[in-house]
Design a protein that fits this description.
This protein is mainly alpha-helical. About 80% of the residues lie in helices and about 0% in strands. The termini are far apart.
Length: about 260
């Protein structure tokens, strides 16, 4: 209990330093460093939630500096700690209470999600699409682990959209994850659309003469898997004509790959 009181006393002391006073300019850079130091201390002591709160405060300070690179970094640091704590709790004790907070562990997820979204918005403004894509993919994996498969599919699809031209292989993996989530929630139509998208990425975005295709001979296998999945999804929707068409396309593709 004494440790918790020490943290909140120190945290509130640092917060006081952010309050603007007459004729006194707030030193946001120094405040950020102080919150970071507090966060590192809490992290070493294994108090991940307290560390995350400190890092979020540091991110807000960097926003006022402004220093968007550092802001994004500490949003991610905070979000990562919250996700780690959340997911570990799901495995060990879903009803465990957060130290210092009168709330169940699942309340960490929205704040963790918010941290990542803040960082993504910064990267998008900077044109750092690959970094934004990777964060969307992480979000997809984390919310999927919480059984929020539909939301996970949306994040995976956003990740793929950002990099499908620059990194078709990673984009195809993200789309595959989205497909699996769509199937899990029995949204077969959306899953089928994602399958067709994955085929387009594998075939057209890479291109038959690109170095990417030459270095990855399993592209044909990936397309074949998609065509088979398309047929199965249409069978689940009782669209037997479309399923037969997909199987014909699969047979043609298989002959061409020999």
């Amino acid at each position: 209990m004494d440790e918790e009181i020490d943290f909140y006393a120190e945290f509130n002391h640092l917060q006081e330093g952010l309050k603007k006073r007459l004729f006194k300019k707030v030193n946001y850079s120094q405040c950020a460093e102080d919150f970071i130091e507090l966060g590192h201390t809490m992290k070493r002591e294994g108090r991940s939630v307290d560390a995350a709160v400190s890092y979020m405060s540091a991110a807000q300070c960097f926003k006022n500096v402004p220093d968007s690179i550092q802001e994004a970094y500490y949003e991610i640091e905070a979000g990562s700690l919250l996700w780690k704590t959340q997911l570990e709790s799901e495995v060990s004790d879903p009803l465990k209470l957060i130290g210092g907070f009168d709330a169940p562990m699942q309340s960490l997820a929205p704040e963790a999600e918010h941290c990542y979204i803040n960082a993504i918005e910064i990267y998008l403004k900077q044109g750092e699409y690959y970094m934004a894509s990777m964060l969307y993919a992480d979000l997809g994996a984390n919310v999927a682990a919480l059984d929020r498969k539909e939301q996970a599919s949306i994040y995976y699809e956003k990740a793929a959209q950002l990099i499908e031209r620059d990194d078709p292989l990673v984009a195809a993996e993200c789309i595959q994850n989205a497909i699996e989530c769509r199937i899990y929630v029995e949204d077969y139509e959306a899953a089928h659309e994602a399958v067709l998208w994955r085929i387009a990425v594998l075939q057209h975005r890479a291109g038959p003469d690109s170095e990417w295709t030459k270095q990855l001979p399993h592209v044909h296998d990936g397309v074949a898997e998609c065509l088979a999945a398309a047929a199965l999804l249409k069978l689940l929707q009782r669209d037997y004509v479309a399923a037969e068409d997909a199987l014909r396309t699969l047979a043609t593709h298989s002959r061409a790959a020999m």
